[in-house]
Amino acid sequence: MSNPPCDFYCDQVLSSQIPVPVCFENDAVFAFHHTNPIWEQHVVLLPRKHVDSFLDLGEKDNELLLELMRVARNIAADLMSRYGGCRVYTNLGDYQSSKHLHWHIGAGKQLRSY
Known about the structure:
By secondary structure, the chain is α+β, with helices and mostly antiparallel strands. It is built from two helices and five strands.
């Protein structure tokens, strides 16, 4: 029997095994400032409930998706007002390093390549 894939966000972040600078949190979602940012401002937004990826959201997750989008919109609006632009994206498949749905919201000067 093989071990399930590592889920950094459930195993480390949401369980408080590693401290992260919190940007926003409620019962459904958690957002934190990336500890190794790609941009000057880099926020990671994820559901507290484990969902493998964007493609794994179903109709039962409609409220969760709406909450994720509401919070992403608020963070993006703040970054837009301060930097004049921002990025909001999620990765899928081979591009997804942690198999827990999450969005990157970034603005400002690029600090490193991804």
